[in-house]
Write a structure and sequence with these properties.
DNA polymerase, domain 1; Cytidine Deaminase, domain 2; 38% helix; five-stranded mixed β-sheet; alpha+beta; single chain
Length: 257
């Protein structure tokens, strides 16, 4: 009997299943490219800083770099701009606390801590420069330093600047702080601190959170009492400076000492 396989042509005689046909090619859909929206900038601040230096950036761009990437729902550039608007100036930022930062939308504990650390570094650098032992011969320089230190504070602060016999800075320290409108200052405590620093003279200052620098009647009375108390221990009161956000009032310049 003839084998059924022999009846077939040699090409058709095989003992394996035919190879499956190639699957049809898959056509992928073409998706449109997303357009960049929001505050995207073709030249990012970080790249511009590296190429041109930090002076090429605006205040809010510098702050945006410190903040890093934005949080969901909070664009980092919008957050930085809002910080500048809230605190008015970079000097205002110097007096902000971590709680102030965290109260702002888009800033959590990590970002608040980062900003506070950078600000503290800046503050310490300024203090180092202020404490160089060279004679202070410019009342305006002292007033500018005081305005930077306490001009933006939201509560009254009383500070003392201790000088040696050559009018070189010994130290600057906060004596006391009060509320928005009042503060208790004890002349005997200032005398004690002046003697502890072995100061030959000192300048005292306090801020007015309202921004107005005109001394009150109580400011004038305190200055007279303090001047008399310091003279008893041979320490001169060179000036009492009232500090506002953008201006100062000098008792010495007004002839009230």
């Amino acid at each position: 009997m003839t084998s059924p396989c022999l009846a077939l042509s040699p090409v058709e005689c095989r003992d394996t299943a035919p190879a499956p046909a190639d699957p049809p090619a898959r056509i992928l859909p073409i998706r449109p490219r997303k357009r960049r929206t929001g505050n995207w900038r073709p030249e990012r601040p970080r790249e511009r800083l590296l190429e041109r230096g930090p002076a090429a950036l605006t205040d809010d761009e510098l702050i945006a770099l410190l903040l890093g990437t934005g949080k969901p729902g909070h664009d980092v550039f919008v957050t930085a701009r809002a910080l500048v608007d809230r605190f008015k100036t970079l000097r205002g930022l110097l007096e902000a606390s971590t709680d102030d930062f965290q109260a702002h939308p888009g800033i959590g504990p990590a970002r608040a801590a980062r900003l506070a650390a950078i600000i503290e570094i800046a503050r310490r650098v300024m203090n180092e420069k202020a404490q160089v032992r060279s004679p202070i011969d410019s009342p305006q320089a002292v007033e500018d330093c005081l305005r930077l230190k306490i001009g933006s504070r939201s509560q009254e602060v009383f500070v003392a600047v201790y000088l040696d016999a050559r009018n070189c800075l010994i130290d600057m320290e906060e004596i006391t702080r009060g509320s928005l409108t009042r503060m208790a200052v004890y002349p005997r405590e200032i005398v004690r601190r002046a003697m502890a620093h072995n100061a030959a003279s000192l300048i005292v200052a306090h801020n007015h959170p309202s921004g107005a620098v005109q001394p009150s009647a109580e400011d004038r009375r305190l200055t007279r009492v303090l001047k008399d108390a310091l003279e008893l221990v041979d320490v001169r009161l060179l000036d009492h400076v009232v500090v506002g956000t953008d201006d100062t009032f000098s008792f010495a310049r007004a002839g009230w000492l």
